[in-house]
Amino acid sequence: GAVVSQHPSWVICKSGTSVKIECRSLDFQATTMFWYRQFPKQSLMLMATSNEGSKATYEQGVEKDKFLINHASLTLSTLTVTSAHPEDSSFYICSAREIGTGNYGYTFGSGTRLTVV
Amino acid sequence: QQQVKQSPQSLIVQKGGISIINCAYENTAFDYFPWYQQFPGKGPALLIAIRPDVSEKKEGRFTISFNKSAKQFSLHIMDSQPGDSATYFCAALQTMDSSYKLIFGSGTRLLVRP
Fold first, then answer.
1. Which chain A residues are Cβ-neighbours of B89 within 8 angstroms?
2. Residues B5, B24 contacting (CB under 8 angstroms)
3. A43 to A38, A102, B83, B108: CA distances (angstroms)
4. Who is most buried in A85, A106, A113, B96, counting CB within 10 A?
5. Residues B100, A109: C-beta atoms closer than 8 Å
């Protein structure tokens, strides 16, 4: 089945530094990838939609200059949290939609736990 | 109109019992309804999904019941096992919407007692 690899699974960084999270579709091509943020015991909050070769579409209230998204190829999207602060600590999850199969069962990555100290 | 309302927030079931989680939606343009299972520290995994042209779909111990007129759908877990203890999210998608955004319910934390 479709597999999405997300890396790293956890990261601790100092306040003010930047952190990059990678999301790769391993066995399928994905024109569209999604980035979510999840707080403890809460649902997934969509941050942005990443389209291959074009600018990401951010949800209302998400700072695009803080959360930089790049979708450079059909199998890779990256989320960079710039100038991270403790309030950015969260669980970040990506998902990918497979092209052309009519499959709407989006595949999720295993998530990245970001802790900013 | 974009919301998907999910209940209950938490559920405790004895091993072997039936777990039932309910969701309701308003947007009649939604035409794909998946359920996701999420274990702590992991991403959600697709469990089962249904299109509104059928009223029920069963895969193993998991069944989705769909009531189009009431705009409601539910997940039934038969013979619930401790390994089913996880958070379950219903979701809805408008497949003709080019944004392809999944709209998630608020989640149900299921605990199956041995």
1. 43-44
2. yes
3. 6, 26, 21, 9
4. A106
5. no
